[in-house]
Amino acid sequence: MFRFLNIVAVAVLVGSAVYAYEIKYSTLYQAEQLAKAKRDLARETDRVAMLKAEWAHIVAPDRIQTLADKYLGGQTLQLTQIVAAGAVPEKAARGDEIASKLSDLGLDAPTKTPSASGAPPTPSKPAAAPKPSAPASAIKPPAKPAAPRQVKAER
């Protein structure tokens, strides 16, 4: 019995030593990771500060004025060039350009497509002389398609 307790005590002692060293090295690893993160953060903070300083230099009014004088011929802004927003003309309204081109070609009638059943299309009558073109505003929008029928499932 005495030897068995000695063996158990030695095993517990070895196990606790292994556990203590594992915790120690895990703590050292975490400390190194924290120090690395702090260095990375300081490096990124320095980069941000450097970029802010470069941006302040790039957008400095004196520098922009010098570049404008050098490359734009030194023209200064006159008070007569400034207007109110309401004085700027509005963008021209655009119509349906495709429909106007089709009506110019005489193709303003809707075309028939073959049915989904696979039946061959029926021959249509030859087209008459082209109609005079109508302005884009006179073209009517296509009619709304009928709502699809609901089919009840049979059981």
Task: Provide a brief overview of the structure.
It contains three helices and no strands. It has helices at 2-58, 61-71, 97-104.
Task: Indicate the overall shape.
Answer: elongated
Q: What is the number of beta strands?
A: 0
What count of helical segments does DSSP give? 3
**Which residues form runs of ≥5 with pLDDT under 50?**
none
Task: Please identify the structural class as seen in this structure.
Answer: mainly alpha
Let me know the average pLDDT. Answer: 79
SSE string: HHH
Rg for CA atoms: 42 Å
Distance between the termini: 81 Å
- Proportion of residues in β-strands: under 5%
Helical coverage, percent range: 40-55%
Largest sheet: none
Descriptive keywords:
155 residues, mainly alpha, 3 helices, 49% helix
Question: Can you describe this structure?
Answer:
This protein has 155 residues and is mostly helical. It has a domain at 1-80. It is 49% helix and 0% strand. It is built from 3 helices and no strands. The protein is elongated, with a radius of gyration of 42 Å.
List the helices and strands and how they pair.
Blueprint: H1 2-58, H2 61-71, H3 97-104
